[in-house]
Design brief:
HAD-SF_hydro_IA; Rossmann fold; 2 domains; DNA polymerase, domain 1; five-stranded parallel beta sheet; 12 helices; elongated; alpha/beta; 7 strands
């Protein structure tokens, strides 16, 4: 973790999955297996985050095209609606303590979110977690901006949009590759491996 101290940041930038919102991908697998009449293990063995997954996250292919690619790679003949049901079943509530931490932080400095995500997930979490997400001034979503973490161009785009020097932004993410990508572009970083990490970082910032 970057060393943080009071006054060392002008903006906070949060990943969403497993930092703000809890994610349980096994719920998607279980849902799809139920519809397909197969064992969840059979789907787990075949599921990969492939090129179609990345293109879907950048808004470059449609939901129908992505679900068609899943139908082929997973070998299950379920409908788009059934894929969508499982796809959105992964949201498992808010991360512990985050509902208390975000409003407290927002009183002291602007909060932003930067997430690799896709249109169906955005449609779902924007409604389901509207209150919690309302603490962010702006959500930078890969499917809207056409750029994904950990690419340098993605971080540069978000830093420019926030309008604060990179070294005055603290970025929270659960994936090491995204943390490294952000650090390489000059952001302060916090690798979130447990819910306590966010609270500890805010404490170090005097929040």
């Amino acid at each position: 973790m970057t060393s943080l101290s009071p006054g060392s940041a002008d903006a906070l930038l949060f990943d969403l999955g497993r930092v703000v919102l809890d994610i349980d991908f096994s719920k998607a697998i279980a849902c799809w297996a139920g519809h397909a009449g197969c064992r969840p293990e059979a789907i787990v063995a075949r599921y990969v985050r492939d090129e179609a997954y990345r293109l879907h996250e950048m808004g470059k292919i449609s939901d129908a095209d992505y679900f068609a690619s899943l139908r082929a790679s997973l070998g299950i003949g379920i409908s788009d609606a059934q894929f969508l049901e499982g796809w959105n079943a992964i949201f498992a509530g808010e991360m512990p303590d985050i509902a208390e931490l975000l409003p407290r932080a927002a009183k002291q400095m602007p909060l932003y979110a930067f997430s690799n995500t896709n249109r169906p997930h955005v449609d779902y979490f924007s409604k389901e977690y509207a209150g919690l997400l309302g603490h962010f001034r702006e959500l930078y979503l890969s499917s809207s901006i056409g750029l994904r973490k950990p690419d340098a161009e993605a971080f540069d785009h978000v830093v420019a949009a926030i309008g604060v020097p990179a070294d005055r932004i603290v970025f929270f993410d659960d994936l090491a590759e995204n943390v490294e990508g952000a650090r390489a572009r000059g952001l302060k970083t916090v690798h979130v491996t447990s819910p306590r990490d966010v609270g500890n970082a805010l404490k170090a910032l005097g929040i």
